[in-house]
């Protein structure tokens, strides 16, 4: 290689040990058979030295990347070729659609092939740029100086900038304590609920037992004397025994329907899960109230059965009248536990 190649950019492959050098030729020594390069990068990593000298004994392969040698134009030879060239043939023009289609197909095929080659070339260059650097690169040999890099960070200036942009402690405290207004649905109550009063019923006598409902309401007990006095006062104002039987039977029915599942279970589409209710009644006012409750349950599509002794049917007038009404509601009446009508 002569000195005319000085300034050209080449790539020199020196094997697996030395690697691949790439740079600009600064000197060519023909006597010592050496080449000097500047702006050198070894295995795509820029070298810190200004100039690298390579011996031809170490060079395995050499590629010319960019040349500074100018080639002379051969005007004389081209003119001679033009003089000796045979006459060109006249172009044959035709309007045949078959020839035009063939020409278009050939042109499209060349474009597609060129596009594929460009994509493959781009993929190869991308892979070489990513994976060509060996593991034993000089970059990995240099340890990262954490202390030097940390000294470049001005902590005080950064915190001053953060404090200048942020709000003061008082403003931040007020923003945190701001409560966003709650949004209510159409079925929610916007009025705040008061503290519930669970002991709403009071009696004028001392009691030893209390009852608590499902909602937590406390119901006190009363003595027998107070109960009789309440019934007497009810009859004085017009609440006769028949009215009280209807009222208590209806209230007991509502409680039983709630325990059975309410409207979720008692609907016309749920015919295969009808609940069965058995009521034990006697020949007294409480028995009449139980029969009345059974009549209301039967009207709500429940399988209701009244278990009452045979002698109790005629012993109490209210009980017998309630049994007649119950029989009109398709309810069952049995006199013993061993009956097969359940």
Beta fraction of the residues? 15-25%
Percent in helix = 40-55%
CATH topology of the domain at 240-334: Rossmann fold
The assigned CATH architecture of the domain at 240-334 is 3-Layer(aba) Sandwich
The ordered H/E elements are EHEEEEEHHHHHHEEHHEHEHE
Tell me the name of the CATH class of the domain at 240-334: Alpha Beta
First-residue to last-residue Cα separation? 119 Å
Instruction: Report low-confidence residues grouped into runs of 5 or more.
Output: 72-99
CATH superfamily of the domain at 240-334: YjeF N-terminal domain
Radius of gyration: 55 Å
Contiguous helical run count: 11
Taking the sheet with the most strands, its summary is: 6 strands, antiparallel
Mean pLDDT: 78
The number of strands is: 11
Class by alpha and beta content:
alpha+beta
User: Based on CA inertia axes, which overall geometry fits?
Assistant: elongated
